[in-house]
Every structure is written in C-alpha cells, then in structure tokens.
Amino acid sequence: MHRAATMSPPYSRSLQLASCFLSLIFLPLLISAAAPPVSISRVEDAQYFRIYFGQSFKVIKNGFDGKSYLLTQRNSKMATRDGYCTGRIKSFAIPLSNYSLDTSTLGIPVSFFELLGLLESVKSVTSDEVTSECLLKSLSSGNTALVNTTDARQLMQFAAHFVSDVDRVQACNYVVFTPMEELLPLQRAEWIRYLAPFANAEARANAVYGSVKNNYLCLSKLAANQSGQLKPVVAWVEYKKGIWSFISDPYIKQLVRDAGGETVDEIITNNSYNVSDPDDMDNFHAILCTVSVLIDQTYAPSPAEYNMSTFLDNIEVIDNSCFAFLTNQSLWRTDKRVRTISDGHVTDWFDRAISQPQLVLKDLIEAFFPSGAYSTTFLRNLAKGEEVTEIGPETCDRGSSVALEPTIVPCQRLLRR
Known about the structure:
The chain has helices spanning 12-32, 111-115, 133-141, 152-155, 185-189, 192-195, 202-224, 250-258, 266-269, 278-288, 308-315, 324-327, 352-355, 357-368; strands spanning 39-40, 49-53, 57-62, 68-73, 89-94, 99-101, 122-125, 145-146, 161-163, 174-176, 233-240, 243-246, 262-263, 272-274, 293-296, 331-333, 337-341, 344-347, 380-381, 389-390.
C-alpha cells in the first residue's frame, strides 16, 4: 500500500551536504571528463528531488530515500567505466533502452511515461492493475510483458525497473520513483522532470510541465477572483468500518483552496464519528448541515454500484433536508474513471490525476461553481446519478510511440452560481 509522506522536505543544509558528498564521489570522473562545474537544475516546485548536470553526465538526487543516480551518456568515456551499485549510488547509461514498472502497488503513475512518449519502451509491468488504456493495449498486443514482482532474475534483464516501495530490497537496476510522496499537486506533477533525464527528454518534460503548471495557475487565479461570492464549504469524507471521518491532508486542502473553496474547520476534521454512537452521528449530521459541497472518497469494491442511496444508508440520517450539498446536487466521488479487475478495481485518480492536476482543479471548480458546460474528468456526481466510465484497451486512441499530450482546459471567466 502507498505510504504517506512523513519526511520533512529537504532544505538547504541537506542539499549542501548532498552536493559535497556527490562532489567527493564523482570528482575523479569530473576531472577526467573535463566537465564544467556541476550545476543544479531548476526544479521549481518539487521538494524531494534535485538534478545536477555535467558535460556528459547527470546526477539525480532523490531526497525521499537519499539515493542518487549517476546517468552517463551512452557514447561517452564515462559510460565505459565500472558502474556504481551501492546502497546510496547507482549508475545507468542513458538514454535507457527499455523500462520496467512495478505496478503492483500504488505510486507509479504510468501517465508520466506516456507524456514523455516512452510507452513503447515500457517492456515489463508487474501487474495489469493500471488505468492507462494504451498500456493495456500494449499488454494485449505482447509489446509489454507481465512479470512477477518477486522474479528478480527476470526483472534484472531490463535497463531500469522503476519502483515506489523504498523498503523493498532493490537490485542494481531499480530506480525509486515517488511522486506521490510530495505533499502538493504541482509538486507531484513536476516529477516528470525526475523521469526525463533517463531518456534525455528534458525539453519535452519542461514543455509538458510548463503547460500543466500555467494552466493550473490560470484556473486557480480565475477561481480566486470570483467576486461577490462566498467560498463554498467543502467536506472531503470517508466511511470505513463503521466510522465516518474527514480527510484533511495538504494535497486535498491545496486543491480545494486553489479551486476557490474552503475545507471544514481544521478542529472539526480531527474528529471521527461512529455510526453506532447516536451522539457522534448527531454531531456529524450537524457539521454536514454547514457543508455546500461534499466529496465522498469511501472505498467501494464495485464503484458502479455505489450511488446516492449507498451514501445515505451509510450516514444513517432520517431527515436530510438541511444538507445543502444534496439540495444543490453537489455530492461527488473521485471514481469516475475506473477499471474493473478480478478482485476489485483501480481508478485513474491515482494515475492521470497525479500527472495532470489541472484537470482535477477544473473538476473541482465545476463542482464549486457549476456552469453545466464542462464534463468532469475524475469526479462523478452521485446526486445526479452519474455513472462510472469503464477503462479498457479499446479506448486507446494513439500508437505506443506517440506521446500523450497534456489536456489544457479553457481558462475563462466562470459563471456565477
């Protein structure tokens, strides 16, 4: 399972220590390659990685697990030297000829590889529990193979195997890729720049992230400039084992804030509510009476069967007349795009929503300030009976060698409620 980020973002002192450490390790290589002084690349928003460039090499520093990756150009003299494979440093000749992805756990959004045009080079995944239509098509055509996540010998045949589980024993070709450990939407999306150096695709990554960020900031500014309107109060909730709770993490708070809303008071969101305790539920219902938009992120084994009746049964309310989010038909879930698998489902909320946060933001803006003219990507409206969209290989609309283009949504004046 995905593990929430607990490490503080790397600050200047840790970066200085990392720079000194890398300089000591790579100094002989720098001199022999007659490279200019190492310079840090411009990482604008992400907190958990940095990139350093030399004449014929790059160094990626992962600030979440402390690992570094020395990337040497395949046709350079440095690439002919013995490589590194220690607990802290690994080396790779780039551009990589192929990729393998650990898709058996959350944390490796395939859409990052698609945005860089690398899908054709993805030759192995450890699970077909993905929401990328074109990767599913590649699996069905045989271009990509399914490899057991425990088959280290088979995984070693690939140039690099990308993983998100930092606690797993890692072979020399394993690369830790952890965008979901970042706390904020744009920080996560910028991990396309972490991936790009392995393919010498920095120009493409800069273009994609630039477009995504500009679109996100434009939409956020538009939502903030709504004049004469009270900010909608938003509750992001979850029901699990008889307990209702408010989800309140930095990622969700930032999205709600950037979309022009405000979350339920911080003190309230620290509480949980047991459906078997009448006092608890009275308090919970009272809080819901102050909410204008509700997003229900309760896990459902079959999202297609989760509807408004399911929600109302779970909150065990007799009179819901005070619930403005029902009156305004603003009850939402994040499982609009799903793929049904043998033992459950997977949702695109943990893939494309990570690499393209501008689409999530636009969905929330539509939920907060409905225009009726925009079809949401990830959110579905339970109050209006909106159904899920099933994902499959048949909906892939491009070849595996063609890069996925980011969806840039119109940024225009919103209609008033």
